[in-house]
Amino acid sequence: MIDTVEIERLRGIRTGKLQGLTPLTVLVGRNGSGKSTVLEALFLALSDPPDNELYRVVARRRELQSARWVVWKTGTEGQATIKVTADKNLRSVHVTWQPSNNDPRQTQGVLSAAVVPAARQTDPKGPLEPRWKASGVRLVEVHSDVANPLHAAYSEAARDPTRRKEIKSLLSALIPGLEDIQLLTEGVGQAAPVVYLFFADQSVPIALAGEGIVALFRLALEIAAPPGRSCSSKSRRSTNIPPPFSRERA
Q: What pTM was computed for the model?
């Protein structure tokens, strides 16, 4: 049974720890507080090897068009670390984002994950720990019925200054410190822009604010859509998860 999980620099969690876990644990918190990130951390830590499952973690946040957002502040403050203790056994996983040409501004690069043997964290020559045999570990994939991407829906709604103001006002009431909403491209030649939230010290894709905020944003767009129009359209539910990146190039 999992007793403890520690997370550093994974997605929107700079540092956090949950301990004293029970066979049934319910995570409760505000939108964007990191509930989904905790589940992703457990999924990576218990996957063998974790590198093979990175694409699922990226695919769950389809609005994030670059894999670099898996690591806190795109890795500019170091790699992500996940530590899970189960039955007094410790398993550590490092998740690293390496941008192309070592340029932190690049959206292209390599996302990797590797298990760090517990004994070698303090002693590089320590013995290898036995590989965990975790079985049945998976993430519940949530597929959206909404075909119209966020950037297209916001672009249409934001053409009207009044509607744009209403959308910003609604989100500002729920996201402390929000200063602006803009469409930005993720890299040179990137066709599809991404909805970004602007704060005093940084700007991040809206998908990092949590699934609840993204859902609220779509609702706000629906309300602000011109009369007789809708920001979304229905499409057939897909059971396939197209990887948005290859493990060699993100």
A: 0.63
